[in-house]
Design brief:
elongated, single chain, mainly alpha, 59% helix, 80 residues
Length: 80
Amino acid sequence: MISINPGPLGSASRYLDRYRELWEQRLDRLGSHLKSSNEGNNDAPIKEVELDRVYEAPVDAVWSAWTDPTKLREWWDLIM
């Protein structure tokens, strides 16, 4: 018979929970950033961008928020 000790998996799960929470917070902030910025509210057609979420913003606005260091600082909140 094979048995597995689940104890170590609990500590791994707790470790990963910190990163899940970080990503959830950052992706929420990206959504807020896109809604409040002019880029997210222009007349361009809205397309879906899926990271682990779908944002109601043009693809180029989402791409710019991820790739432009100035915009990234507005929602990612890390020292870059």
